[in-house]
Design brief:
single chain, mainly alpha, Leucine-rich repeat, LRR (right-handed beta-alpha superhelix), Helix Hairpins, 3 domains, seven-stranded parallel β-sheet, 13 helices
């Protein structure tokens, strides 16, 4: 058994003895051997450095003993206490023990009915614990009371180690999601957050979307079963993808910086090795130079000895003088030998001098090469340091630029949306006012035409006595034509008013369903623009009719001065009125086409409403499935409680 595990065992058993309780059977089996020894019903599933007590029933005293053992433990890294009936009291004890623990990285407390007090204890633990990386709190009740979720959010704001947080099925509502979002705004370590099967809704999802504008470390958020709109889910998914991409980019830059640092270290080590080798070569050359100097000194001493001997021999030769020839020859022979030896010694001395000068020049050249290599190495090291510093600065600038660009994009999107809505309202108001003004002007012009027509009839009766009957007939025809024109104009005006009313009703319907039908907003806007263009075309036609009526008035005025041209002008007016009728017929056809287009648009809106109804039915079905699942879980928990009470009895 490892020493660390033995220390945990002694601390746990000592606390059990102090509390006068028997150690938990499953935990005792784990401490006594490396495999579970308890029966199948009480067996604890263990892996290396894991305490797994899931499904076991822990009393408060057993929780206190386990908390004491965990407070100074350095062996176990995973603690699984799922479905152990901890409640708030047991959770407070376990969290207190983990405040000073530095080895546990994973804690699982799912299905323990933890409420506000237990959440507060876990939050206080997260504020001081520096090792926990994963916390599972599924199937608890921390979201029912705002105090529990607020304390957890405050702890996440200062925690620097937790990377994975599971809060599934915790009754967290929109307010709780907003509180969590505020706490996670400045968190720089949490990467995965599971909020499935809560009730955060639209407001909670908006808070999370706003959170992701500031938080750049969250890479995964699970929101299934929260009634989150599809548009908000897409916005959150885009932000999470952005964070994941930014993290990959950051990791690549850090890897590049690490590679550069390793390269600099390798180059530095290589240059140190080269410098060491050069110093060794220099020391060897220096030793050779010292040896050569010693040999030169020995040669000089031998040369001086030989010169002394030569002087002695010459002195002896002068003393002998003209001795026996054989002795002279012997002396000459000895002198030649000595001369040869002296020449050899001089040659050796010369070679030694050359070797000494060559060694000195080699030493100087080696020293210069060593200085050059050292300068090059220093320059390369300095350049690599500058490259590393420049890469880090570029990384910081790119990160800051990305954040600024995201904020600018968000502001521009909001500003564009507001301008688009304002332009739509302004265009509708302008269109309504323009049509009202045009209709009023048309009515006024018709009244002026009628008064002008009455004046022209009176003038014609006074000026054309011989053509009275014919003029009356033409006047009746003209009156009938004008009446028909007024009726057509009134009918057209009524049709236009109905069209405007229909368009206003359609616009109100589109405005009411705007939030729910954002994907079809562009298509409906295009349809409305087409209708506006068609209305503009109809306005052009009305202007043409006004011009034709003006031409008719001009013809009647000219009839006052030229009675002979009355028939021709009246015929021309009749032809123009026929043209106007044909144009009115074309306008009626255009109106029918517009009504068909409006009918198609209404059908599209009906289809979209049916689709929205289908989404609501699917949401209700999912909710019913969730209720059934909760009922099944309640039945299972009740059955487990009954079995436990039966075991206790």
């Amino acid at each position: 058994m490892p020493k660390e595990m033995d220390a945990f065992k002694h601390a746990y058993l000592a606390k059990c003895s102090e509390l006068a309780i028997d150690p938990h059977r499953a935990l005792t089996d784990l401490l006594l051997s490396n495999r579970p020894l308890a029966p199948a019903s009480d067996r604890v599933t263990t892996t290396a450095k894991t305490i797994d007590l899931r499904g076991q029933s822990l009393t408060l005293k057993e929780c206190a003993a386990l908390s004491t053992a965990l407070s100074h433990d350095v062996y176990f890294s995973r603690v699984i206490l799922a479905d152990t009936f901890l409640n708030d009291e047991g959770c407070i004890l376990i969290a207190g023990g983990l405040k000073t623990n530095h080895s546990v990285t994973h804690l699982d407390v799912r299905g323990n009915s933890i409420r506000a007090d237990g959440a507060l204890a876990l939050a206080q633990m997260l504020k001081v614990n520096g090792s926990l990386k994963s916390l599972v709190m599924e199937w608890n009740c921390i979201g029912i009371w705002q105090a529990g979720i607020r304390s957890l959010a405050d702890a996440l704001a200062v925690n620097q180690t937790l990377e994975d947080l599971d809060l599934r099925n915790n009754s967290i509502g929109p307010d709780g999601a907003q509180t969590l979002a505020v706490g996670l705004r400045n968190n720089q370590c949490l990467r995965r957050l599971d909020l499935r099967w809560n009730h955060i809704g639209l407001l909670g999802s908006k808070a999370i979307a706003d959170l992701l504008k500031w938080n750049t470390t969250l890479e995964e958020i699970q929101l299934n079963g929260n009634e989150v709109p599809e548009e908000m889910a897409k916005v959150i998914a885009v932000a999470l993808d952005r964070n994941a991409s930014a993290r990959k980019h950051t990791l690549l830059h850090l890897a590049h910086a690490s590679d550069l640092a390793q390269t600099v270290s390798l180059l530095d080590a290589n240059h140190r090795d080269v410098l060491t080798d050069l110093r060794s070569d220099l020391l060897a050359k220096q030793k050779q130079l010292d040896a050569a100097c010693r040999n030169a000194a020995k040669s000089s001493e031998a040369y001086r000895v030989l010169e002394g001997r030569l002087r002695r021999m010459e002195r002896e030769a002068r003393e002998v003088g003209d001795g026996v020839g054989r002795e002279r020859e012997e002396l000459r022979r000895r002198l030649e030998e000595v001369a040869r030896e002296l020449g050899a010694e001089r040659e050796a001395h010369h070679q030694t001098s050359l070797l000494l000068s060559k060694s000195q020049s080699d030493t100087k050249r080696t020293q210069l090469e060593l200085d050059s290599v050292r300068c090059d190495a220093d320059a390369r090291i300095e350049g690599l340091k500058q490259d590393l510093k420049r890469v880090v600065e570029e990384l910081e600038r790119a990160r800051e630029k990305g954040r600024t660009r995201e904020v600018l994009w968000d502001e521009q999107a909001k500003r564009t949306h507001a301008e688009h809505e304002e332009a739509i309202r302004a265009a509708v108001a302008a269109t309504e006012s323009e049509w009202r003004g045009r209709v009023q002007k048309l009515e006024e012009k018709l009244r002026r035409v009628e008064s002008s027509h009455t004046t022209l009839e009176e003038d014609l009766q006074t000026l054309k006595s011989k053509h009275t009957l014919e003029n009356r007939q033409w006047a009746d025809k003209l009156s009938a034509a004008e009446t028909q024109a007024r009726r057509d104009a009134a009918a057209h005006q009524t049709s236009l008013e109905k069209t405007i009313t229909t368009l206003q009703t359609q616009l109100a319907t589109l405005q009411a369903t705007h939030d729910a039908l954002l994907p079809t907003h562009a298509r409906l806007t295009a349809a409305r623009d087409a209708l506006a263009a068609q209305l503009a075309a109809q306005t052009t036609e009305i202007t043409s009719l006004r011009a034709q009526l003006s031409d008719a008035t001009t013809h009647l005025t000219s009839a006052q001065s030229a009675s002979t041209q009355t028939e021709a002008r009246l015929a021309s007016l009749t032809a123009e009125l026929a043209t106007a009728r044909s144009q009115l017929t074309q306008r009626d056809a255009e109106t029918a086409r517009l009504r068909a287009e409006i009918h198609r648009t209404t059908s599209e809106v009906g289809r979209l409403e049916a689709e929205v109804g289908r989404w609501k039915r699917e949401a209700r079905e999912r909710e019913e499935e969730g209720v059934k699942a909760v009922e099944e879980i309640v039945v299972l928990v009740s059955e487990r409680a009954r079995r436990r009470r039966g075991d206790v009895r």
